[in-house]
UniProtKB/TrEMBL annotation:
This is Ferrous-iron efflux pump FieF. Residues 233-294 form the Cation efflux protein cytoplasmic domain. InterPro entries: Cation_efflux (IPR002524), Cation_efflux_CTD (IPR027470), Cation_efflux_CTD_sf (IPR036837), Cation_efflux_TM (IPR058533), Cation_efflux_TMD_sf (IPR027469), CDF_Transporter (IPR050291). It is a multi-pass membrane protein. The gene is fieF. Residues 21-212 form the Cation efflux protein transmembrane domain. Keywords: Membrane, Transmembrane, Transmembrane helix, Transport.
Length: 307
């Protein structure tokens, strides 16, 4: 069941939340750079470095969101939504790169010593940035889950990773202020780097899985439960079930096996009903293709299609 391509734009809440993400990223980068300059803290510097990568990544994600909703054309028959996996992979790579930069800066402080000043101003600026990012990150993940958008969810995870970095900075500066021991600063910078590296590698893994069409076991169980019920209802069987998710669209294909005496017209009617039911369970968009077989020819001449 392949309806004609339509020109679709991302929903208003998707566009708005990504625009907010980009605007906030720019403002908070200025705030964090200011805090890093006035304090000389490697932990705050690490927070600012992560914000640079985030600003670049969210700019790409905002473009990718619109690009992913372009309809299929003569050179992209299955649409453009796989760009979502490229965008989330880019976010993951940039988070990991920021983690390595932060770790390097912490090592330099361990070697060369630590100098920190203006702790109060640094804590106020960092705390404000963390609060704003927390609200933004939760909003991004909420919209991403509701719209089944890997791209927006990845951006939300990146924002929340920034919150973790800022929280580490605040704890480090608080401990420095309470104890006078400046080594808390590079220690917490190192911990932030480790957390960011884990988040970045996780996003890269998810992006690679999407680009390689890794099957979703939860979706497969849902599909098989529905197909088992429909086939029992109509006295059919099925095989060669395959499915993949391209970022926004679920693609499903399978073979339906009908009694030899059933007319092609009736078999087509039943197949169309099953296709519609399967597509309706796949959010936000489902595409289903079935191949009809008579029972006497089941599994014949299909070696080319065996996975």
């Amino acid at each position: 069941m392949l309806p004609p391509p339509m020109s679709r734009l991302p929903s208003n809440d998707q566009t708005q939340v990504m625009n907010w993400s980009l605007g906030v990223a720019i403002v908070l980068l200025v705030v964090k750079v200011t805090a890093a300059v006035i304090t000389g803290s490697s932990a705050i510097y690490s927070d600012a470095a992560e914000s640079v990568t985030h600003m670049l990544a969210v700019g790409f994600a905002a473009w990718a969101l619109r690009f992913s909703h372009k309809p299929s054309d003569d050179t992209h028959h299955f649409g453009h939504d796989k760009v979502a996996f490229i965008s989330s992979g880019l976010e993951g790579a940039m988070i990991a790169a920021a983690a390595l930069l932060i770790g390097y800066e912490a090592i330099l402080q361990f070697v060369n010593g630590v100098k920190i000043s203006s702790l109060g101003a640094g804590m106020i600026l960092t705390g404000a940035a963390a609060a704003v990012n927390m609200a933004l990150g939760l909003a991004l993940i909420r919209v991403g889950k509701r719209r089944h958008s890997q791209l927006i969810r990845a951006n939300g995870q990146h924002v929340l990773a920034d919150v973790w970095t800022s929280a580490g900075v605040l704890v480090a500066l608080l401990l420095v202020g309470l104890t006078g021991w400046v080594w808390w600063d590079p220690i917490f910078a190192s911990l932030a780097a480790a957390k960011l590296l884990w988040t970045g590698l996780k996003l890269l893994k998810e992006s690679f899985a999407g680009l390689m069409d890794e099957a979703d076991l939860e979706v497969e169980k849902q599909l098989r439960d529905l197909l088992d019920a429909d086939c029992a209802k109509y006295g059919l069987s099925y095989h060669n079930l395959r499915h993949r998710h391209s970022g926004r669209t679920h693609w499903v294909e399978l073979h339906l096996v009908f009694p030899d005496e059933m007319t092609v017209h009736r078999a087509h009617e039943i197949a169309t009903e099953i296709e519609a039911e399967v597509a309706a369970t796949l959010e936000p968009d489902g595409r289903v293709i079935t191949h009809l077989e008579p029972r006497s020819a089941e599994h014949h001449e299909e070696d080319w299609e065996v996975r």
